[in-house]
Structures are given as structure tokens and as C-alpha cells.
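User: Round two. Same drill as before: sequence, then structure, for each protein.

Assistant: Same drill it is. First protein:
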Amino acid sequence: MSKKAQTTGAPKRRRRRTQAAAAGQGGEGNPQSQADSSYVSRAEKEEQLQKWVIRGVIALVAVLALLIAIPFAIEQFIVPNQTVATVNGVNITVREFRQEYQLERNRLLLQLNQMQSSGFDMQQLAQQEPYKTWLSEANVPDQLGLRVINDMVDDRLLAAEAASRNIRVDEAAVRQAVEEFFGFDPTEVALIGVEPTATPEPTVTPTPFVSPTPTNTPAPTETPDPAAIATEVTAEPEVTPQPTVVEPTLSADEARENFKQNEEDYRAYLDRAGVAAETVDRFFERNALEASLADALVPDDGALLYADVRHILVEDEQTAAQALQALNDGETFAALARAISTDPGSGARGGELGESYVGNYVREFRAAIESAEIGALVGPVKSEFGYHILQVRSKEERSGAETKSQIERAKRQELEQLRESLRETNSSQFEIFDAWLDYIPRS
């Protein structure tokens, strides 16, 4: 073949292969075709990256929202239903405990603020009870929380006791408790403007029974005596934004309006502090129930037992037995009391406690007086102070107008003693869990 022929033939063959390759474009077995079909433009890459960024941001937001929502849900829906105590098989929840705590704390703060604004020297008050305890509770959340949780247990035990006695309170009783709390006496108000000759005897307004802290009952004699002042009495301070005072210049309508405004202001104050209206209502219901229970324990027309007593107080039972033997052998009571009694008040007086309402004494001492025969030596009687040898000189039941103030005091004493007794006899029926410490409102 000539050189010319070889030169002209080669290109022709290349063209045929190129045409064949062109004809085969898009075939499944063609690598070049596959490479061309997988090509992604820059705009498509940016769009795909943007989608992944958006998805990542959404996922991150969802995780953060979940992390925030879980503690919120726990605090709002799980924690409030946790149990801090049980009484007779019924739970006291965190929600209930927090509400009662807020109620008591704000009542305390209001009372202390009123006293300060009235010019009381708070530093001086801080040295005496009950103000010392009030100030301490207002500043130490755990101390106030401990009282609140114990009060809640006692309140439920008292409610069960009232139910066992078929004692119930209706709306009228609750309304009366509200009026007494604010010092409003409808009977006295109704008599405003009435001629004195036409006025019936006004009723006595009892003192409310709920208090931030119990206080000691004053001793019946001039010198304090352990046996005479051991009973704790609940005394209610006036805890109102502005106590209602029925002045002679006020008309009956103005006095009623004053009372209504005071109640509204008080409820509004507690509402701003986060105390639910239902919690305030339960507070007044408890007051009414306790008042009814106290009336059952000590009726208004009931008689009170007074006794003239002397005693010898020693530290241990053996010494008490020896003292009793010495008295039976002829030792004089007064001389022995002066010699060995650990009660400095009555001991210096030969053991004389004088005449007093028996409810002023601790439960064990009182029970011994009630069962003792006149003149008999009784003992040893154990109390929280030690061991007593006692002798009752006289007993007398008294009733009438002269004992009205003592009856009101006796109601509070009997109610407080019932609280203590129920707590002792029902110790297996309630349990307080340490978890309450974790749920005290700190704000």
C-alpha cells in the first residue's frame, strides 16, 4: 500500500470510532456517561449544605427545649405531688406544704412589720418570747418549715379527733371565725347608737386559736414554778393589715364596711405573696373547727376545777420515794420542801403552789391532783421536770361570770394539751419525711 493510501485511511477509521462512541453515549456500560450524570453544581451543593445546617439548628433547638421542658415539667407537675408526710394514711404533698409555709411566713412578716411601724423596739422584743421565736422563724426558713410541717400533722390529727366527736363546722361557723380573727363583733356593732338602757349584754369574743408559735402560760403565783407554767397555750396575735377598731365615732354601717375592707386587704396581701385563696379559706376553716372543739372540751357554762396544792420536786424516783417515806414518818412537808426541793420558787415557800386552775399544770401533775384525796400524800409523780410528791389542800369547781376570762384561757390550754396527747397516742399513725427540707420556698 502506498504512503498516500495509509495517510488517508487512518483518519477515516478514527472518525468511525468517534461516531460509534458518540452513538453509544448514554449507554449503561459507559463510564463517561456515568461520570457526567453524577455531576452536582455549586449551587446545588450550597443548597444541600444549607438544608443540613437548618436541620442541625432545628435538632439543637429541640434538644435545648427538651432540656428546659423536663425540669419545668418535673417542678410543675411531679414535685408538687411528692409526699412530705402522711397522717392516717393520707399524704401531705409538697404543694400543700409550700402553701402553708407561704401563709405562715407572710403572716409573721406582716405582724412584725406592723409592730415595727407602730414604734416597737424590735431589738428589745427579740430578747423575749414569743417575739424572739417569731424573728428567728422569719429569718431561718428551716426553723419555720419545721413548725409548719408539725402543725400540719397536728391539724390533721385534731380534725380526725373532731370527726370522731361528730364535730362539724358550717359556713356560719367559718364566718364567725373570720370575724373573730379581725376583731369584729356583730353584736357590739349592732348596739352602736342604741340607748344604754335598751342594750342587752354583749357577747364575749373569744381569742382566735391559731398562732405562729405557742407561748408559756403565766404562773399562778408570783414566783415562777415549773409545774405551774409547763402547759403551753396557743395565743393568737392580731395579724391583720390594719386591725379593726370600733370607735365611738363610727356608725354601725361604717364598722361593717371597715371589717369588710380589712378582710379584702388581708386576702389581697396574701394573694400577692403567692398564697392561694383556697389556702386562706382552709386557715379560717381550721380556726372554726378548733374553736368548736375547744367549746366541746370546755363549755362556756362549764365549771373549772381549782385546787390548792403544795409539792416537793426532786430529780430521781429513789429520792422521791425517800422523801415520801420521810413525810410518812413525821417529817413536816414545809421543812422537807425547803431542804430538798429542786423547784426554787415553791421550795422556798415550803412547797406551796397556792390555789390555781388545775389546767395550768402539766398533764401528769394535773391528773394526780384530780384523782387525789384532800390531805393525802401522792407520789412519786413523774413529769418532764422530775419527780413530785404532792398534797392537795382543797378542791373547788367554779363557774359564773368571774371565771369567763379563765374559761377562754382554759379552752386554749385544753386544746393545746389535746394536741400533745393526740401526737403521743397516734405516733404510729403519722410519718414526716426529711424531704420537706428540700421543698422549702427560698424566695
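Second protein:
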Amino acid sequence: MTEVARNARQTSRSLDALAGAQGADITKGLKLDTTGHRESGGSLFFQTEPLDYTLPMSLPQGKADNQILGVVEALRKEYAPREVVLVSKDINMRVKARALGLVTDDYQNDKTLDDGDLLYSGSLALPADFWTRQSKTIESWQQGSYTFYRITGPIVASLLINQFVFFEAPGEPPLYARVTEIRAKTAVLKTLKDFNHLKNAVWGVTTRNREQNFAMNLLMDPEVDFVTLAGTAGTGKTLMALASGLTQVLDDRRYTEIIMTRATVSVGEDIGFLPGTEEEKMGPWMGALDDNLEVLGKTDSGSGEWGRAATNELIRSRIKVKSMNFMRGRTFLNKYVIIDEAQNLTPKQMKTLITRAGPGTKIICMGNLAQIDTPYLTEGSSGMTFAVDRFKGWPHGGHITLARGERSRLADFASEVL
């Protein structure tokens, strides 16, 4: 029933399908369909004959890993001067292979990005000469409380739909906008709602920096169905997602309820099974929810003790905590779904969760790629990286990387130096 056993069965099915389709002799190799690849006519061979190899005495001969290394060594001698490469996810085996002078490589097909620094940030600083270069060609118009700008030039090639752009220069008027349309060599920018101002507070919460304001514009936009928020601890991901969720569920009636889930991966040693119902089992994992609800409960200062207690009760009734294990086959209608600690999800788990969305549902994914607790995932292969990369440029999706911590000076300093 384990993941390893499932993978082994899937491998057997794939081999059976390959051999069965061709009716071929497995000992002579199976032709592979390599259409679309640079090299054609590849074959899959199986090591069925005993090979003559010698390994150092320090490597026990009966161990499966060492037998594989022996086969690689024998193939290298047999097919010299052709290069024989051992491809494995087992880091220890790769280290041993290099010690024996064998060429090794890791799998590449599970990596969305080779380097976490290449991840799409969701925002772009406009060049210092932006206004002077665009002054003759820029076209602007007013629509409601928003100003639109149509820009041209080489910068358009580097823009994506729902990407945020900003211009900050001394002595120049600042610009904070979102790309709403790209056609050929022109792009349309739409100015943002300023959630830094108290009059636009969301459930009593105002944003404290530029990136938080970008994120709140995505969270409060009914046209954006999928939002990803990345950032270190204390950048306000959970607080903003909950505040905008409560406003849209209780005040605007845009969604019927908030559904919150997260990957249940321990930071340290597992403490074993938890008692109770699904909601009670998820309770200890949802400390972040309780902490943020406590903050949001204090924003309503004019209603007194009884009023706050009634509000808290109402809030609790509209937030459902669900386990990820029971998501398969579900459909969420008009729900506001928050997926916390999304960096611990595999691409397959991420796909399972996002495809639960029915009409009128909005999904928020939050995570910190520097805090991956799953041993089999890296920044490049995390489901969150996968989602950010695949959804960039989609008109109904948006991403922002939150840069500044707003938790406390202690937490900010710890993020930098530890």
C-alpha cells in the first residue's frame, strides 16, 4: 500500500504495455516511440545476461545498489568508448558511482525549474526612463476610479497578463499597475486599488508594503480564480487570505464559505495518530488559522465584548477545515479555498486539489519554498513551483512573491541571519 509499491506496480504495467504492444523479445530490447525528440530510433534494453565485473571489497557484493554499480561498470567496459550514464534519484548511489569514476545524472523531468531564483515573481520594476520614453506614444483613459495606460516598445515582450508593474523614482509620479491586456507590441496597464489606505481596509486589515498591496488586489478581484502567494515567514500570507476571504464570504456574499486545508507534514518527529473527527484531527495543524483569527477578531473594536464573541462564532461557522486525504472526487461550488503550506505538495497533489474547483470557486495557494519539509521535494520540483510556472500569464490567475516580513523585528532578523 506504500508509495514505493505503487510506483513499482506502475513500472511493471508500463513494461508490460511496451512488451505486449510489440510482441517483442524482451532480451533483444524494445523500440521506443521517440517522435518529437531530437534523437530518434531509441530502444529500451534490459540487463538479462550475467556480466563480469569486479567492485572494491569495501562495497558488499550482495547489496542491490552495488550490483547496479557493477552492471554500469561492466557496460562501460563493454561499450567503450561510448559513454554510459547512471541516472538515479538516489544521492548516495550517485556519490558512490562518482567515487568509482562512473558518470551519473539526476532525473530532470520532475523539475519545473533548475534554480529557485528563476521562479516568476509576479511583479516587475519599470526602467528609470519609462515615462520619458513612453511620453509621446502613451495613451491613457479613465474608467470609474481606475486609470488605464496603453504602452508600446520592447518592454511589452517581457510582460505577462496579471503581472504587476511599478515605477518609483525621485521627483517623478509613482505608478503601480497591473497588466490586463497584451496584443502584439502593445500592453494595457490598469492602476490598482490602494489597500494601504484605511478607507480601503479589508476586515480591518490594511496592507503595509507594495507587494502586500499587489497581493490584496489579486485576492479581492472576482475575475481572478487562482492566486499563489510565496514569501518567507511573517510576510502576511495567511492574514491577508483570511481577511479577504471573510470580507467576500460575510460582507459581499460572493462565496458561501471558506475551506482551509494544508499538507500535514511534520517539521520534526511525528507524534503519532491524533484523536477525534476529521476537523479535530486537523486542529493541531491549523495553529496559523487560530493565530490569525485572533488578530482579525480584534479589528472590530466598536462592538464590545459580546459583539466580538458573536462575530467570532459566526466566523467559525463559515470556516471549514478539511484534510487533503479526502479531497479526491469532491467538487467545491462557490467556495473560497485556502491551501496552506503548499510548498510541501507534489505536482500531482497540487493538480488533485486545483481540479476540485467548481463554478464560482476561488483557490488561494500559500507557501514558503525555503521551508520544504517533505524529503522527496526540492524548490525545483515542488507542486507550488509547478503551479506558479504553469499558471503565469493566465487571465484568471495571479502570483506575487511577498518580499518584506511584517511579523516583528525579531522574526525579520531571524529570517536573514539563521
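The longest strand covers residues 175-183.

User: Perfect.
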